[in-house]
Structure formats: structure tokens, C-alpha cells
Amino acid sequence: MTIVKIENVRVLDPITQTDCVETVYIQDGKRVAAADHVDETLDGQGKWLMPTMVDLCARLREPGQQQHGTLKSEGRAARENGILHVFTPPDSQPIVQDNGALIHGLVEKAMLDGGIYLEVIGAQTQGLKGQQPANMAALKKGGCSAVTNANAAFADDDVVIRTLEYAAGLDMTVVFYAEEPQIAKDGCVHEGFTASRQGLPTIPAIAETVAIAKYLIMVEATQVRAHFGLLSSGASVALIQAAKAKGLPVTCDVAMHQLHLTEHLIDGFNALAHVRPPLRSEQDKQLLRQGLKDGVIDAICTHHEPLSGSAKLAPFAETQSGITAFDTFVALGVQLVDEGLLSALEWVEKVTLAPATVAHMQARWQQQAGLVLLDPSHTWSLTKDTILSQGKNTPLLGQQLTGKVLRTFVA
User: What CATH number is attached to the domain comprising 157?
Assistant: First the structure.
């Protein structure tokens, strides 16, 4: 067994709330006591050692969309950037419904091809068509702990209520990516000055807040465990805060890019900034940051959506939405620490223990988690060559970033 010694490294452990400089020994992705022999010694001066991360929302594109990414390419990108557990929505092709064999096959392939633990979120309705509840009992038996209708609309609110009652009876979490389709319609960007000047159809923030408000009433009535993913609006934070104050069983997350980027990036019809929910106003960004700092927002996810080059070549409104995010996740997290929004330990918790807690997999995560060695002061250029993901679709292309994973230690 290989034993690696890292001298004078800053250990950040959210489980024990440890933040101190130590010399550590690692074997099979775990810390061990001082060893009789050492196979490799690393200088940890100025570097951080933390657990591997948990991502609550990423699309890996396989099965069905391998032109954008595969379990091998995206699994490697996640793992080498310190992310070992990845949750994926069910809106791939074929749609992940109640096919236990398909779920198990995807999980096994993700580990064999990409070296990651894939966590599949099941379909909330049959075929994501929003008309009939999916077979959630079969999904749970197949290994799904949560269901969602992803970005698909429901036929009516009665369907939503029935699925929430069904999930509550099975002690499953329902994940909402809240957007009211009658308000969002065919929009693609935030309703603001930039969109108006460019004549682009909009998705106003109220499309998110109306949906969240409605779903929270249903959550209160059914007492289902609910998670609101990918918050983009400051007003949404206030709604979740009020729901938590009432004691409702709700959690939420935010995509890392919403904490850094705003609607101004779509200027010039920059399709690389086309993402759903859209990049919103500076005020929304600041309120999301405050919600994160205050603990209203439980976790940060990547919302990784790799796309081929051709997916961004059409006129803006016709391009596919999505930003590749595995490769920039750590650097943008380090930036939150450098800017003083979070301490290093607080940031680590938001991307490790907190999402594992949201997913009710703390014990399993602690057992399976490895360790990540990163250099928070390493400056590097984000180019198509330095992006490990098959997708190169990010508005950050060409920028200098600071903070990079040097090595991921896993069993």
C-alpha cells in the first residue's frame, strides 16, 4: 500500500471543524497515523487538504448525448477537480424512470469509466411528461433517494400534489428547479436592461419566485422533504428563509456561477453566458451571496452542463443553455474565500459536508470520501486545452484563475 506524507499542509475538515497546519500521512485516500515507511513526501506549505466534494447538480450527458460529454470524460474532469460524488437529474436520454437495471448500469459505468460515485435523481413523473407520477417505489428500490421533474413542466398542480404525497410516503426528497412556465414561456435571459437592448426574450425572476412560493405551500401541506436547487433570485432566498423559519423540511443550493457572474455577460449575444436559470442582476448576485453567508443557502453546486462547440453557434435564443463548470469550481470557491465572503473552512463545508447532509448521505460520504490537495495561490489560464471536460462552453474562457486542485487521493 502506497503511503504519502504531506508536510505542513493546512487541514480543513468540516466534520471535526479542524483548520490547522499539520503533517499528515495518507493511505488509500484516508488519513493514517505516522507510518513506518513513506513512499512519497510532498511539501504542503501554503496548500490546503480537504475532503472530496459532493456536487448536487451536474449533467454528464451519458446516456444519449455523448457528443457533449461521456461518463468517462466528465467523470475524469470531476474527479481530478476534487469532486467524487455527483448527483445528476433524470433528463438524459433515455429518461431515468423506474428502470433499476438502467440506474445500476449508469452507477457502475460512472465508477468504471470515470472513477466517480454517480447519484441518480429519479423522474418525478412518467417520462417527465408531468401527467402521471413515476413509479417512485421502484426508483427507491433501484437506489434513488430523490426525484425531480427537472426542467419539465407539470400538466397541472394536482399532479404535483400527488407526487409530493407519494414521495413523502416513501421518505424520498423532491428536488425542485423552480420555474413557472406560463411566466418563463420562451425566454432565455434575465429581464433587464441588457436583454431589452438586445431584444432577447426574457425569464423574469418572478418566474422562479412564483413557482417557489407555490411549491412551498404544497410542501407545508404534504410535509414532504424538499430541496430547491439552482436558486438565481435574491427574492427566492427570502422565501426559503421564511420557510425554514416556519420549520418546513426544506433545503436549497446555488450554482457557483450565480455567485460570480451576472446578466451583463450576455452583452454582444455571448452564447457562452446562456444558462438556465439565467444569469441575473448584480443585486440578485449580492443577495445570493448574503444568503450563502447567512446559512440560508445550504450548499454550492457546479451546475455543470458540458456542450459541444456547435451547441453555442446558433443565434443566442436558439443555442443550448449550459456552462461547463467542473474545471472552474475550485478557483471560484477560492475567490469567495479571498473576497472574505466565507472562511476557508466555511467554503469547504458548503461543497462537502453540507451537500452530503442535504442528500442524507453523511455516513456513506464519510466512508467513501477521499482527500483533495489544492493550491489556493496557483494562478493558471482557463483555455480549451486546460479544461478537462469534453465541453469547453464557459464565459470564463481566456481568464486567469487562482486556485487549483493538485491531486485527488481516493481508495
Answer: 3.20.20.140
